[in-house]
What we know:
By secondary structure, this protein is mainly beta. The protein is 0% helix and 65% strand.
Amino acid sequence: MTGPLDDNERVAARLSGMTRYADSQFTPLKEERYALMPSLTWRITDRTRLDLMA
């Protein structure tokens, strides 16, 4: 998901996600991972941009 948050398109947000499931037939290994990675971009001026990422 991504897109501008205001009419002037100075503030934008993005939400990325991932999921992973691993299983092995040879060793008793099971792995599950989930993640959400939000970010926010603020174009303060034409030459200045602030990016916040988690």
